[in-house]
Amino acid sequence: MRQPKLNLPPLVRYKYPIIGHTFLYLANSEEFLKQCKKEYGDIFSLYLWGEVRTFVGKEHLQEILNRDDSFDAEEAFERLLPLSAMFKHLVKPIKELKEYVISKLRTYTERMQKSLNLATQEYIGDCDEPKTIRNVYYLMSKIICNPIADIFVGQEESQYEEIINTFSELTTDAVKISRIPPFLDFIYPKLHYFIVCAILKLGIYNPAAKHEKVLVKHLKSQIYKRLQEKEKYGDSWKRPEDFLQDLIEEEGFDPNNSISYTKLAQNLCFLIFVSIHTTSSSCAHVIMDLASRPEYIQELYEEQLEVHKEADENGILPFESLNNMRKLDSFIKESLRLAENIANLPHTVLKNYTFANGLQVPKDSLAIPYVDDVYLDESLQGPNPKSFEPFRHLDTNAPATKVSKNYLLFGGGKHACPGRQLAINEAKFFLHNIILKYNLRTESGKIEVPMKFGPMRFPSRAGIIFEKRK
Asked: Which residues bind heme per the record (predicted)?
């Protein structure tokens, strides 16, 4: 039967055959998408990398995030980075993450702070003399991965340099394969994806393989040790409190089956991938904004001094102190608002879909939220949405962890990022210590803005000067 003709979104005019809008999109996404929205309306399509992709602005964007039966973010991400080919036994333990980590964040409060403080001391130091650090994202990944490793694989394993390197470097290594431009898609749609999958499945090149091997080796050693100690000490055995112990007590884990260790390692690789990069990138953006705007540090410092009065004799804050970091929370949210990608969270269209305005997108196409249309809208963000207003969110009753129509960092709907509480809590504990311990300023003395590539924004690599607070 002949398929009915769809009422497709307008396709923006382009000059160049084959490449379509690809060059303009990569050269200046911010201005290009703004102009497209102005001329063509809230929903429009571009010809990028050999296929038509539809961009959806603020008026209809929530339809993408909330219609699970019609749009799928995981499938779209798989096209960008085929994790199923990279990790053959991957299950994506989101349910386990929620149950064994997110629901128990209160119990990890002390360990998280101790680990962050030790890592800060190791990688930044006392700074009695001013110390300049460049590429702050790399620094953040080294610091942030320590408490995550502690929570995921335990205090003992997180002391190994090999483990810390895997936690801090896995994401950077894994995404290398996604940075290859999909030129092959100009020849045939999805050809690039099929070639990448073949390379990964055949073992020709897999940037995550070395990290999987490290985890398997350490997990075997640690699990054997725990099983032996449990048998030896019986009821007096002190059960380790970490994600690893929860996972190996699951019914499906078999300590005598090598595949069980492979599955465990690959599932941990996935969680490392989705947790370390997001938190490290967020902290890098916030640190750069703090250093770029020293006029706000004193006010934040005074708040953190008050919060620190709640600390115990070892300087460890109770979990409830996070709620009292209201100015810091607003600063973090504002920093992340202006640092998010211009267009983000692509979704695969699962079936022909009709938007509320009558425009339709076909099955298997890509629908991409035009995020800047939300973040630069005065009705959603308040006055001067382009400017950095650190305390814009102070009295909104919308903390940095809350998903809303005007804040899309963690997605939306039922599939909003389940680890957002972990990421923001870790960032706040880390920044609490940083603000109390150091004065910050940019090496240039100017406001440093995120780097751009196409629709993506990355933390600036400009130098930050850390100096011990007198």
From this structure: 417
